[in-house]
Specification:
binds NADP nicotinamide-adenine-dinucleotide phosphate; 6-stranded parallel β-sheet; single chain; 7 helices; elongated; 24% helix; alpha/beta; 12 strands
């Protein structure tokens, strides 16, 4: 039995668990941080809560005899990705990172890239008066000092203080479609969008609406993965690297990470269903 541990909390992590759970000879465990009170649970085994830093994760990998670690956490979940790299190196467990590709600006986009939430907050007053903030509840504190801009913040769970004084909270979980996003922009008279570069399709319609309306978008650039961690863009590429699908160019040969052939009925790479949004918890 080969044991794959998926560090999750994203749509892609759940899709990967869905693809791996039916494969004979594979034990799949998904790990969730426990930030969302009623998460959509993936198939297979699920564990919830922190490991206690890189040493705790390394101990878990050893005790549970994990053969492959997949960091499928959100592109902005920096600490756990660092811990994963450290722990995997310490116990010599192969590590892959599943990261949906960054969003790419299109004709008509008015993007203002920044390197941090603090820089995003500083940029707001010069760009608009009513901002839709989709950077997640945990980052709201960075906007607490913003004045002269009404903030409409969307999150899955209620945000906690410190909060910006001029704030409306929309408690919603994606995916968000184009019609719904148009309605949000209209109802709240949004003239500015603030987002992290989360990538993926579940939260992309807001970018299309900003483009349609010619509105500026403050977009927070991604932090990088730890040095040396191999990054794959989608579930199909991970299955390929595990020897369970068509290998990507430059991917080690099938079986290189210790898994056998896919079971009949295993979803073909690319044939996975749509997932939820996770970008604005
Ligand atoms: P983070 O700052 O990188 O990690 C903080 C701590 O939370 C870690 O040190 C670890 O605790 C624990 N942790 C994080 N992800 C975990 C996981 N999948 N399983 C077990 N423990 C985990 O994390 P974050 O940015 O708060 O994100 C937390 C979770 O929400 C992640 O699963 C991520 O994929 C998801 N998420 C994050 C964002 C975002 O914008 N950051 C957006 C959507 C979803 P220990 O050190 O005790 O192990």
């Amino acid at each position: 039995m080969r044991h794959v541990l998926i560090l999750g909390g994203t749509t892609e992590a759940r899709q990967l668990a869905e693809a791996l759970a039916p494969v004979p000879g594979v034990r799949v465990t998904s790990s969730l941080a426990g930030r969302v009170s009623s998460p959509r649970l993936p198939p297979g085994e699920v564990r919830v809560g922190g490991f206690g830093g890189p040493a705790g994760l390394a101990a878990w990998l050893r005790e549970q005899q994990v053969d492959t670690l997949i960091d499928a956490t959100h592109p902005f979940a920096q600490v756990i990705s660092r811990n994963a790299a450290e722990a995997a190196a310490a116990v010599h467990v192969p590590l892959l990172a599943l990261r949906r590709p960054s969003w790419v600006p299109r004709d008509g986009d008015r993007w203002h890239p920044v390197d941090s939430l603090a820089a995003a907050a500083a940029a707001l007053p010069a760009l608009g008066r009513r901002a839709l903030l989709t950077t997640g509840r945990q980052g709201l504190a960075a906007f607490a000092g913003v004045r002269g801009v009404h903030l409409v913040a969307r999150s899955v769970e209620p945000p906690e203080p410190p909060l910006p004084p001029d704030l409306t909270v929309l408690l919603e979980r994606g995916p968000f479609d184009l019609a719904g996003e148009r309605a949000v922009f209209r109802e709240h008279r949004i003239d500015l969008l603030v987002t992290k570069d989360s990538g993926g399709s579940a939260t992309a319609p807001k970018l299309a609406v900003a483009r349609e309306l010619g509105l500026p978008v403050v977009i927070v650039r991604r932090p990088g993965l730890p040095t040396g961690v191999r990054e794959l863009p989608d579930v199909a590429a991970v299955l390929g690297a595990l020897g369970l699908g068509a290998p990507e160019p430059g991917t080690p040969a099938p079986g290189a990470l210790g898994l056998g052939a896919p079971a009949p009925g295993t979803p073909a790479p690319g044939a996975l269903g749509p997932g939820d949004d996770d970008a604005s918890r």
